[in-house]
Write a structure and sequence with these properties.
Elements: H1 8-35, H2 39-50, H3 56-63, H4 67-79, E1 83-87, E2 95-99, H5 101-122, H6 127-149
Antiparallel strand pairs: 1-2
Helix pairs in contact: 1-5, 2-5, 3-4
Amino acid sequence: MEQKKFSDNVVLIEKYLRRVDWIIRKKGREILNDINITDPQFIALQHIINSNQLTIGELSQKMSLACSTITDLIDRMEKSGLVIREKDEQDKRVVRLVAQQKGHDIVNQVLEKRREYLAEKLSGLSEGDKDLLLKNLKYLYEVMTDETNRED
């Protein structure tokens, strides 16, 4: 008889993390449809806002998409008033992507709606249970990011 490689808890935790992620992404796409922005545009906006400014090459790396794909995406976002291209002050050859107020407003609106949805779904938990869930999710995130940030 073969010995189990993982405990039942590890198998179930992985399964439920995937399912929760899928549900949150699905809900996010529903919210984006109401706002008339695509999922890739929203992801790009988040990267640009979180990094303050990015080049097309940097955004391409973060999204794991070809520069030509990112250029087309940014062209559409620029026409919609979500971002602008700005020349770098120190090196005029470098073009940085900067989120416009409309882009910030959309990201804030989507995050607010996702948080409302999550708050509704967590309403059955006590504050202590929410604190415990947060503590454990934060721990998992930290050990995973430590692992991916290590240089060998």
